Amino acid sequence: MAHLLLFDLPGGNDFAVVDDAVALGHRLTLFTADAGHYRRLGDPAWQRIHRVVEVRPWTPERLRDAAAAIDLEDPFAGLICLIDIRIVDASVLAQRLGLPFLSPAAARLLRDKAAVRAALQAHGIAQPPFAEIGGAAQLRAAVTDLGLPLIVKPADGYGSQDVTLLRTSDDVDRLCVALAADDGATDYGFGVRASRRLLVERYVEGALVGCDCFVRGPHRVFLGVNAKERFAPPSFAFRGSCFPSRRHDVAMLEHHANRLLDAVGFDFGACHIEMILGPDGPVLVEINPRLVSAQIPFQMGYAFGRSIYAELIDLHRGQPLDGLAALRPQAFSTIRWLVADAEGILEAIDLPAHDAPAVQRVVLLRRPGDAVRPPRHNGDRLGYVIATGSRQDDADAAAEAYLAATRVRVRTPAPIVAACAGVPPIPSRMQLS
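Above: the chain sequence. Below: its structure as tokens.
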């Protein structure tokens, strides 16, 4: 089968694409700045990667040279990147290798949230007032110009990291102090740090949804709407979601998603578009220029009855979208995330003695002895459960029931037991159809 080039892994620890690619008979070459990071994880999928190339320093020139040498002897049939911080490098290299991928211009634009807002304005797409800032003084000026409430987030951020909601002047003061005292940019991993540029925009209340699309030039397939839930403020981590969702106007959301993709010149690949359904219509949260992560591909796979990674691989091998366009969901699929209710050391996660038939997958991401805390961003979550049902309410109820029956024990100055949203040991991964 095909020889595929892969740029790092989502979350630095998600080997699902490796499992599915190998199950389909493909060979993978992984480019990374830190091979030791993956070896230390001990995931068996690591051994199934055909070739690992550590690129240090991680520069366009070294990437080009390493890829060209391999491609000469063992040509690549496609390049896959599932991690935001590598999208621009992947797009440039794919163009040099003649492989289908998102254009470098679109990739650069989509790694800059403030530039995306400007592009939407230029195309007549309404957005809340916004500004780009670089520090505490500019934040105060933006608050004066835009008014509260505001959302502040890194212009090049992802994964709900360092997102702050400002409702009051006290919130503004606290963030200004934090910005003034900060002596280092956020570390995104693999040697990549935040630019320190911040997007500030008017906060809009409303339901949060995600829209997933596959794009091949002028051809697009809208996979559906994912109804999302966040944890209570000040957290911006996702509590869970259901795919597909029939609780919103799907046709309207597909139309708006297409307008957004037109405005940013999205010409190839998978994308995940998050929107808030505000009182005046949908407003953009973010366009992720890659397949959705956070285990949602598994969630979607249970809905469709086949691997979404398999579809992504076919897309990047240059296959048409006809088969994907014909797919229809066979069930509703709900994911709910397990979290700690207190900061401390994880002692144990007590799972239900028996799984309900609707429970399809349960995964723990943390082990006893790990430091845990209530969710500030997605990386603080402990694990998840996926349940399915013939109705959306049934899938939601099954996942919620599993969480309610799970207990998270955290050692704090005085040991506590917290009833929580829960999850179990890693089972076998989803089988390809």
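The chain is about 30% helix and 30% strand.
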